[in-house]
């Protein structure tokens, strides 16, 4: 008698997720008990759940999250285009690498949060300033990964392509270098989207004009810890979901390269 493939898949999924569910339940129970102790610096989990349901029901969290995601999409999209283009340029052309790369490496070592006050003075307190913060948070890991991918493009494939009359630089980029760099590009996008969520929160907390950052700043200023934690909670969840999405794409890209 053959086992039902569907039930086997469900059992496999249950076994895979069981440790995570058990750990989460134990952690929530511990935090609940600790949060109800005297002078605890964190609210109980039940209070956070109630606060989360409240700001979802009144529309403040969905509205703020939508505004934040719009900021993230714009900043990340611009960083992806600029980072991939700069990574290819710097990785392929030695004169550009020697001229520009030392300055970009120095900027990469500088924390983005240290530049936020300067960015806001230059770009203003509107959308442009916040997009710039997200852009800088995403740009460098994308550019550095693409740069590494282009630099590590197999020289033997380049030589073989040239022997088959792929002589132009555009042809080499299209046929060999960019396809060989795809896993590096996707890896950079995965790292960039996670840091973009951080940059999004930093920009909005500094400005307090809207989005999740405005909720965090507002509830933090009034010491409403249950609402503060409920406002912070979507950030790691969004970052985790997007990172897993790009991680899945990265695994598919790596498998395609191997294949």
Explained architecture:
By secondary structure, the chain is mostly helical. It folds into 2 domains: 1-36; 58-258, MetI-like fold (Orthogonal Bundle). It contains 11 helices and no strands. The radius of gyration is 23 Å and the shape is globular.
Summarize the structure.
The chain is mainly α and 259 residues long.
Q: What is the radius of gyration computed over CA atoms, rounded to a whole number of angstroms?
A: 23 Å
Q: Based on helices, strands and strand pairing, what is the structural class?
A: mainly alpha
Query: For the residues shown, what is the average pLDDT?
Result: 82
Count of the domains: 2
The biggest sheet amounts to:
none
Helix count from the secondary structure assignment: 11
Query: How far is it from the N-terminal to the C-terminal residue, by CA?
Result: 36 Å
CATH superfamily of the largest domain: MetI-like
Query: CATH fold name of the largest domain, please?
Result: MetI-like fold
CATH architecture assignment name of the largest domain: Orthogonal Bundle
Classify the helix fraction into a percent range. over 70%
How many beta-strand runs?
0
Q: Which ranges are low-confidence, i.e. pLDDT below 50, for 5 or more consecutive residues?
A: none
């Amino acid at each position: 008698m053959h086992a039902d493939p569907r039930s086997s898949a469900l059992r496999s999924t249950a076994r895979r997720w069981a440790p995570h569910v058990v750990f989460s339940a134990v952690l929530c129970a511990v935090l609940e008990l600790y949060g109800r102790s005297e002078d605890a610096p964190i609210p109980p989990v039940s209070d956070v759940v109630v606060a989360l349901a409240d700001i979802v029901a009144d529309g403040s969290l969905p509205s703020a999250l939508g505004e934040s995601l719009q900021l993230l999409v714009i900043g990340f999209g611009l960083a992806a285009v600029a980072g991939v283009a700069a990574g290819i340029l710097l990785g392929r052309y030695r004169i550009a690498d020697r001229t520009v790369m030392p300055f970009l490496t120095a900027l990469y070592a500088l924390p983005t949060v240290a530049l936020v006050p300067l960015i806001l003075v230059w770009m203003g307190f509107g959308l442009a300033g916040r997009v710039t913060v997200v852009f800088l948070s995403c740009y460098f890991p994308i550019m550095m990964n693409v740069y590494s991918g282009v630099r590590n493009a197999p020289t033997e494939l380049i030589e073989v392509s040239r022997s088959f009359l792929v002589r132009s630089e555009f042809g080499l980029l299209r046929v060999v270098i960019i396809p060989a760099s795809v896993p590096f590009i996707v890896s950079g996008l995965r790292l960039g989207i996670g840091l973009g969520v951080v940059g999004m929160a930093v920009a909005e907390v500094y400005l307090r004009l809207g989005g999740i950052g405005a909720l965090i700043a507002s509830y933090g200023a009034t010491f409403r810890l249950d609402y503060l934690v409920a406002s912070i909670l979507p950030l790691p969840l969004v970052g985790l979901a997007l990172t897993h999405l790009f991680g899945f794409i990265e695994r598919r890209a790596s498998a395609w390269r191997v294949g």
